[in-house]
Design a protein that fits this description.
Structural class: mainly alpha
Bound molecules: heme C
Shape: globular
Number of helices: 13
CATH class of the largest domain: Mainly Alpha
CATH superfamily of the largest domain: Cytochrome c-like domain
CATH architecture of the largest domain: Orthogonal Bundle
Helix content: 25-40%
Order of helices and strands: HHHHHHHHHEHEHHH
Number of domains: 2
Distance between the termini: 46 Å
Number of strands: 2
Radius of gyration: 21 Å
Strand content: under 5%
């Protein structure tokens, strides 16, 4: 059966920017990739007209040079409204079976984009109840007048279905697997890493530090799903950040209501981590040295009853800490941070960006 509106442009013309060793992310059957759709999604991502007053776009909190984070402790949305959580990076978002810091049900990029647009707790783009007006505004733009029909031949107008699918297709194209560490590990460039980063790699994968237990695999997280996975890996952990947890950020327990989920958050990927400060779900750790200090002391709340057993603290020399940080810095993918395929497509002074707030 073919559902009305479920048709998209031919997918064959989209080429994943991927090396042979990395399979593509999974793609939902009702949203195949196409070059036209990814380009449309890119324009929407940078378009502040998706917000109530034309000031907030996705890029207002997800900036390419910062691996699609914003440099703030917690995100600031429409009318300066400040949320309780740090904006996570979007590199490789298509590979994460669950999205956001602590919601086990948030498993789709298509659905996720509704939250910043229409969510009210906190308001980010503030567009609840404004959809018809906003979609009419988009339909009147000459670029969209051709881009929507090209991306969605059978459903050519801006609406919830097409906008969220185009955004998700663009996000799936945000692939970042070309760091110095990748060149060293997968391409055999033995001098791509400094001696310090090589020592740091050994320490990162050493039992004394335990980092790799949670930050494991191709994306340095235990949350991974590729088009070849038989089932997704999903990992939430309590790293001893608080005891008790502030009401604004209780962790997984907020959704599951299970006591053992207090203070548990999704393990973030460490790709590009050197450019995504400040760190943790609430941005409360300013730099990588602070992250190392946090783990060395077994967290600020070393006695939290739900803290993961791997967060046990360690003793390390300054030189060893420097080495682990050098390793983390080698996970930065400079090409990704400046890839023109992911950059702002709108000319300066276009209605999409004239009033757009940037962090
Ligand atoms: C006001 C700032 C802000 C704006 C605007 C914003 N985001 Fe976010 N984004 C966040 C925050 C904060 C989170 C984490 C939310 C949470 O954990 O509950 C997030 C999470 C995400 C995630 C999950 C990433 C992951 O790995 O878990 C995706 C995907 C995302 N945003 C995409 C978008 C898209 C697409 C738009 C535009 C439609 C957008 N965001 C607009 C702040 C923002
Ligand atoms: C028990 C699992 C676990 C272990 C072990 C672990 N981490 Fe984490 N890590 C997490 C989780 C979960 C978070 C997010 C916590 C939060 O936001 O409250 C995190 C956050 C981070 C962040 C911040 C990332 C960001 O985007 O904000 C860095 C950097 C990091 N860890 C590095 C390390 C290093 C280095 C080690 C080893 C010393 C380590 N981790 C050990 C689970 C773990």
């Amino acid at each position: 059966m073919i559902l009305a509106g479920a048709q998209s442009a031919p997918a064959e013309d989209y080429v994943w920017p991927l090396p042979v060793w990395m399979p593509p992310p999974p793609v939902p059957a009702d949203n195949p990739m196409s070059a036209a759709k990814v380009d449309l999604g890119r324009h929407l991502f940078y378009d502040a007209r998706l917000s109530r007053d034309g000031t907030v776009a996705c890029v207002s909190c997800h900036v390419q040079e910062r691996a699609f984070t914003d440099g703030r402790e917690t995100a600031v949305g429409i009318e300066g409204i400040t949320g309780a959580k740090n904006a996570p990076g979007l590199a490789n978002a298509g590979y994460f079976p669950v999205l956001t810091w602590a919601n086990p049900h948030m498993d789709s990029l298509e659905f996720q984009s509704l939250i910043p647009m229409f969510g009210e707790n906190p308001e980010e783009m503030g567009s609840a109840g404004q959809d018809d007006r906003i979609f009419a505004l988009l339909a009147a733009d000459p670029y969209y007048a051709t881009a929507f029909p090209e991306a969605f031949p059978d459903r050519p107008a801006p609406d919830l279905f097409t906008v969220t699918r185009a955004l998700a297709a663009f996000e799936r194209s945000m692939i970042s697997v070309n760091s110095a560490y990748d060149r060293y590990k997968y391409w055999g460039e033995t001098d791509a890493l400094s001696p310090s980063a090589k020592r740091g790699e050994q320490l990162f994968f050493d039992h004394r530090f335990e980092c790799y237990h949670c930050h494991q695999g191709a994306m340095f997280t235990d949350n991974l799903q590729t088009s070849r996975s038989s089932q997704p890996e999903i990992g939430f952990h309590n790293t001893g950040l608080y005891d008790p947890y502030p009401a604004a950020v209780p962790g997984l327990i907020e959704i599951t209501r299970r006591a053992e989920d207090a203070g548990r958050f999704r393990t973030p990927s460490l790709r590009n981590v050197a450019v995504t400060a400040p760190y943790m779900h609430d941005g409360s750790v300013p730099d990588l040295r602070g992250v190392m200090a946090h783990y060395a002391t077994a967290g600020r709340a070393p006695g939290h009853p739900m803290k993961d057993g791997m967060i046990a603290g360690f003793t390390a020399t300054e030189a060893e800490i420097d080495d682990i940080i050098a390793f983390l810095e080698s996970l930065t993918d400079e090409d990704f941070l400046s890839d023109p395929r992911l950059s702002d497509p709108w000319p300066d002074g276009h209605p999409a960006n004239t009033n757009r707030i940037m962090p």
